[in-house]
């Protein structure tokens, strides 16, 4: 069954807003690696909570999970060091000490959030579990032209954000409520006859406003923004100044 955007917006109930990161509980069972693959395709990665603040925000809301679930923490067995997805060494980890976790069994190289205790357990990566994915958009509350936004994102983050899946779109909509402008720049650009995401993502998911002319945009309407009102994409004049999403 195809999930609609409306259903995804209901995920707000599960959505844990932690500033930069929004976490989503995914109700599918996968091995850790496949879960990570899924998160990277539709979101950003399996959920991480590196600082104390992030951890508290994540855990405060994680009780919405319906079962034990993978998070983005794994062990490099060769060196015995736990790492957050993305490669950062994990320094403080909220292990379930009361249940003698981690129990350090040699094959337990992945971490799950144990439902009833809001704490982490090590587990065999090949177990099939539900999981938490996160998006990592940053809404920048600065008014910039599209080019200015691109430059800012590439300097301070990686790129202007791609809302290239329904999940990313849902996350961006949640975050866009904080924007100070009616439109929010995204990484959508029209050049040489086509729209594309500046970071190279596939443009097979689209959310254009069908009432607008986006296929052959006028010369001055070739930058893509999210419209807070319609919840759709719209092509705007690249010189207008809006808030924007970086990733
Ligand atoms: C929990 O999630 C709700 C809904 O997304 C959010 O409004 C609230 O701030 C979150 N609480 C914490 C402590 O992060
Ligand atoms: C597993 O290893 C960690 C770190 O080396 C240690 O703190 C913990 O007590 C060990 N757990 C058990 C059950 O031995
Ligand atoms: C999420 O974005 C923030 C801000 O750009 C960055 O510091 C952090 O490393 C990112 N997290 C991951 C897991 O990529
Ligand atoms: C950006 O523009 C909006 C709308 O014009 C305005 O309300 C807001 O104060 C501006 N923000 C900044 C940081 O200049
Ligand atoms: C978009 O393309 C990617 C890779 O080509 C594919 O994995 C994905 O399923 C496609 N998504 C849709 C909605 O067709």
TrEMBL record:
Gene3D superfamilies referenced in this protein's UniProt entry, alphabetically: Mannose-Binding Protein A, subunit A (3.10.100.10)
PROSITE patterns per the UniProt record, alphabetical: C_TYPE_LECTIN_2 (PS50041)
Signal peptide: 1-19
Alphabetical UniProt keywords: Signal
Pfam families with a match to the protein in the record: Lectin_C
Domain C-type lectin, first and last residues per copy: 23-134, 129-247
Record-given protein name: Secretory phospholipase A2 receptor-like
Species this protein is from: Carassius auratus (Goldfish)
Gene: LOC113053436
């Amino acid at each position: 069954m195809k999930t609609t955007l409306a259903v995804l917006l209901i995920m707000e109930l599960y959505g844990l807003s932690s500033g930069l990161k929004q976490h989503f509980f995914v109700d599918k069972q996968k091995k850790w690696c496949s879960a990570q693959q899924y998160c990277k395709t539709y979101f950003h990665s399996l959920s991480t909570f590196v600082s104390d603040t992030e951890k508290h925000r994540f855990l405060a809301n994680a009780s919405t999970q319906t079962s034990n679930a993978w998070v983005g923490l794994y062990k490099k067995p060769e060196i015995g060091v736990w790492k957050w997805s993305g490669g950062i060494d994990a320094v403080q980890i909220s292990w379930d000490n009361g249940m003698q976790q981690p129990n350090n069994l040699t094959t337990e190289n992945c971490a799950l959030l144990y439902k009833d205790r809001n704490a982490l357990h090590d587990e065999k990566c090949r177990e099939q579990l539900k999981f938490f994915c996160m998006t990592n958009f940053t809404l920048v509350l600065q008014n910039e032209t599209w080019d200015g936004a691109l430059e800012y994102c590439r300097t301070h983050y990686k790129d202007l954000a791609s809302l290239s899946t329904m999940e990313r779109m849902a996350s961006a909509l949640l975050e866009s409520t904080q924007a100070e402008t009616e439109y929010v720049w995204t990484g959508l650009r029209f050049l040489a006859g086509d729209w594309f995401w500046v970071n190279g993502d596939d443009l097979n998911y689209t959310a254009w406003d069908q009432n607008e002319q986006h296929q052959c945009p006028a010369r001055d309407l070739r930058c893509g923004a999210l419209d807070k009102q319609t919840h759709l994409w719209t092509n705007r004049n690249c010189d207008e100044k809006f808030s924007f999403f970086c990733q």
